[in-house]
Structures are given as C-alpha cells and as structure tokens.
TrEMBL record, chains A, B:
<dbReference type="InterPro" id="IPR037108">
    <property type="entry name" value="TM1727-like_C_sf"/>
</dbReference>
<dbReference type="InterPro" id="IPR006151">
    <property type="entry name" value="Shikm_DH/Glu-tRNA_Rdtase"/>
</dbReference>
<dbReference type="Pfam" id="PF01488">
    <property type="entry name" value="Shikimate_DH"/>
</dbReference>
<feature type="domain" description="Quinate/shikimate 5-dehydrogenase/glutamyl-tRNA reductase">
    <location>
        <begin position="2"/>
        <end position="67"/>
    </location>
</feature>
<dbReference type="InterPro" id="IPR008927">
    <property type="entry name" value="6-PGluconate_DH-like_C_sf"/>
</dbReference>
<keyword id="KW-0521">NADP</keyword>
<protein>
    <submittedName>
        <fullName>Short-subunit dehydrogenase-like oxidoreductase (DUF2520 family)</fullName>
    </submittedName>
</protein>
<feature type="domain" description="DUF2520">
    <location>
        <begin position="123"/>
        <end position="246"/>
    </location>
</feature>
<dbReference type="InterPro" id="IPR018931">
    <property type="entry name" value="DUF2520"/>
</dbReference>
<dbReference type="InterPro" id="IPR036291">
    <property type="entry name" value="NAD(P)-bd_dom_sf"/>
</dbReference>
<dbReference type="Pfam" id="PF10728">
    <property type="entry name" value="DUF2520"/>
</dbReference>
C-alpha cells in the first residue's frame, strides 16, 4: 500500500495511525466528522486532516476505523472507485461498505485505550478481502505491523470477535463484581489488582485448562455454599452458580 | 518473629518460604507428610526438613500452608502450647486449628504457581489473631514482605477470598470458554493472549467501571442476538445472556 487515509479519530484510529507510521507506511490524511478530533490526531502525528468529504485525498487504501454503527454511513463518503476500502470491525461483513470500490476488512484484535501504549507487533490482525490480490496486500500491510496475522472469512472473524467478548468484556465485568464484593469488606480495589494481573500473566505460558484453581475446580461444596450465602444480589448468585457448575462440568471426568 | 517453621510444601509453602527468607526471617524447618516434597523445598532453600512430627523443632511461629481440607489434621501435629500457629486460608476460621497454642491467620491474596516468579512486595496480606500482641507480630511480619497488609476478621477475609474467586477462578474459566470459541474458528489460543493481558493491564490504573467496553455496554442488541446464534452450548448461552444482562443493568442509567 503506497498511501493510506484513515477515516475516524477514536481509539482504534489513534493506534492504527501510529502503528502504520511507525512502520513507515504513508498515512496521507485523517478524516473525521468532528474537526477538533481530526485535528488532534493529525497534529499529534504530523499528517493532514479534514472534516470535509470534498477534501478527501486519493489513496490506495481507506481504513474506516469507527464504531460498528458508524461504518455504513462513513462508507458512503469515499468518492473513488479504483481503490480499496476496509473497516476494522470484528463483527461486520464487507457488505456493510456501500460504494463501488473494492472491499475488505482489517481487524486488530485488541482493546484500545488512547493514552495507553501498546506493542503493536503483538496485536493479532485478521484480514479479509473480496479478491485475492487485495487480501495479499492487506496481509502484507498487517504483517509489517504485527507478528500474528491471519486470513479469515466473516464467519470465523465473528467467532474470534465473540471470543474476545468473553476474554475481555465479560472478564472486565467480573473484575467489577469482584470489586463490589471487596468493597463490602471495606477493602479497596487495589487488593485485587495483583491477583488480576497474575491470573492473566499465568496463562501467557499455560493453558486455562491447567491454570484453573478454586473451590469449584476442587468440588468444594462447603465453600460454594458459604459463598452463595455471602452473596446478597440474586443476579450475582445466579452467575456464581452457573460459573461454578460450568467449571465443575469441565473437570468432572478428572 | 525470631523463628518460623513451615508446615506444607505446596505452591503457597514454596513461595512463603522464599518470601520470608528473602526478608531475612529465620525459617528453621519445613515439615511435610511426603518426605520427598519436604526435601525438595528444604534443599532448594538450604533449610532443614522432615516428615516426622517427633522431629518438629520449636519455633515462635508455625505457618500451616496447606489446602483447606488438610489444615485441621496438620494442626494437631504441633506439640507445643507456648507458640503461635497460623493457617494461610482465605476461608477457614482460626477455630479450625486444634491445639492449645495461640492461633491466627496469615493469608496471602495471590494465585501461586511454583515455577513462576512473583514480586512478593506486591502481594496483599490479610492477618488475624486471637490476641492483639500476636496480630501485631503477624502484621509486622507481613509488612516486611509486602507493601499491602490489612488486619481483617474472618468474615471480611471470607469476602476478600470470594472476590478472588470472581477475579481469578471465574475469570480463568472465561479464558477457557473464549479459547474453545476461538478454536471453533480454527484459531490458536495465542490470538487471545495479548487481549487478555491488556484487559488486566488496563485496570491497573483504571477502574473496571470505566474500562468496560463491548456490545452489552453499548446496548447493541443486534450483535448480542448474533452471538447467541453462534453459541451452540446451552450453558454458554445462559452465561452469555446473564453476563450481558448484568453489564446492561450496570450501565442502564448512563
């Protein structure tokens, strides 16, 4: 890809722009409907920016890095046919892109926070395109950024995306539940942070199946009952029961 | 504490012995019912070891670092009255300790794997004793190892322990579910590892409430339905629904 234009200025756009520039890809311009956001991203990286469709420059690749609900509308803005347009969503098909250009997907599998530094080479990328040539080009581009690039169709990408909902969104919610229980014991969230980090660290060179510990794994029904008694929220009780049952069933043949 | 004897030779005993020795606490001896395990721990740290109760040396503190189900039996073995005996369990009362000695708890709040190095100063410790003097001594001892020491009664300690079940045991099980979904898409667990680590890293300087992202947080019912269709296991469907509802409810007033 000789030139890239980024459409969007949120967390994903921010980190993708940086990752591309760090790998000496020519990011020509950033477009965002809110000028101040386009400006912030553009100025931070010393690249052009605009909020006007009429000013959109010609490029080999347009990356629409926006929330799922905004992708379709933004896809109408690109006025060129002889180019490749991709979105960065884990769950949308290429068909969401409404234009006569060639279409694809460039999905980075990570949770992005603007102010947090990330090692881009460790972010898995999933690429897809309507034709082999474009897919090869997207693969090569992702391969410049990352050590882990996969070609996947939409169905597989959706599954990968859903696995991320479990491993990140749901996990974060369990952190929240844990925090609320800790606070009932008048303990700050700080006491949970080292445990949370070590639990994630542990499976960096182990499989979750062998890393599992705790009362449900041991089949310790006395503790399980005591914990059910300690819980006051009925949704938390249901979750505790269901998660414990699921763990027990996973190890029932041990 | 002038001298300590460790009862047990599992993961917790292994790391506690190291943490104490690194802080120049005199660990006199390790006792374990399986001699080979006592020997392994003793020789690794250049301290005495035994599998015989009759050889148990006199010390100021005995730390029973064993699984919950073994604590009571081991507590009978200590033949001295004028000493302090503690266990390291998050869920057991001091009353589980059956002897005429003074009793307490020395609970390190972390998940321990033998071969994995840990920063002991970051592990929160929760101490409890039947009398103030012993509690002070346990606090001072934990304070030598760690930057985060709390005095808690049994009820609060049980809540802290349960919060750990959510933040570590249940979280690890979600990693396992995520892995199984990823494998349905013929993707290795490796594609999830960076996301898992970043999700845990993120809340090291953020609160889970502000770190939450994903379809349930956004109230994106189209994705939620698609994910329910992708799931083939009924328990996973129930879990998905319950976790999503719980997230939605957490943010419903936003």
């Amino acid at each position: 890809m000789k030139s890239v234009v980024i459409i969007g200025a949120g967390n994903v756009a921010f980190h993708l722009t940086r990752a591309l520039l760090q790998n000496t890809i020519n990011v020509r311009q950033v477009f965002n409907r809110t000028l101040s956001k386009a400006q912030e991203l553009g100025e931070a990286n010393n690249i052009k920016y605009t909020d006007k469709i009429s000013e959109l420059e010609k490029a080999d690749l347009y990356i629409i890095a926006a929330s799922d609900s905004a992708v379709e509308e933004l896809s109408h803005y690109i006025p060129y046919d002889d180019t490749l347009v991709v979105h960065t969503s884990g769950s949308l098909s290429t068909k969401i892109l409404k234009g006569d250009y060639r279409k694809g997907v460039f999905y980075p599998f990570q949770t992005f926070t603007k102010r947090k530094a990330l090692r881009y080479e460790e972010i898995p990328f999933f690429v897809e395109a309507e034709n082999k040539e474009d897919e090869d080009a997207l693969y090569k581009l992702a391969d410049k950024i990352s050590n882990e690039v996969h070609r996947v169709d939409s169905e597989k990408r959706r599954k990968v995306h859903m696995s991320g909902v479990w491993a990140s969104n749901f996990v974060n919610h369990l952190y929240y539940v844990a925090q609320s229980i800790c606070e009932e014991a008048e303990m700050p969230f700080d006491v949970l942070r080292p445990l949370i980090l070590e639990t994630a660290n542990k499976i960096q060179d182990m499989e979750p199946l062998e890393a599992q510990t705790g009362p449900a794994k041991r089949g310790d029904s006395i503790i399980l009952e005591k914990h059910m008694d300690l819980l006051t929220d009925s949704r938390q009780q249901q979750l505790y029961q269901l998660l414990s049952d699921s763990i027990k069933r996973t190890y029932q043949n041990d």
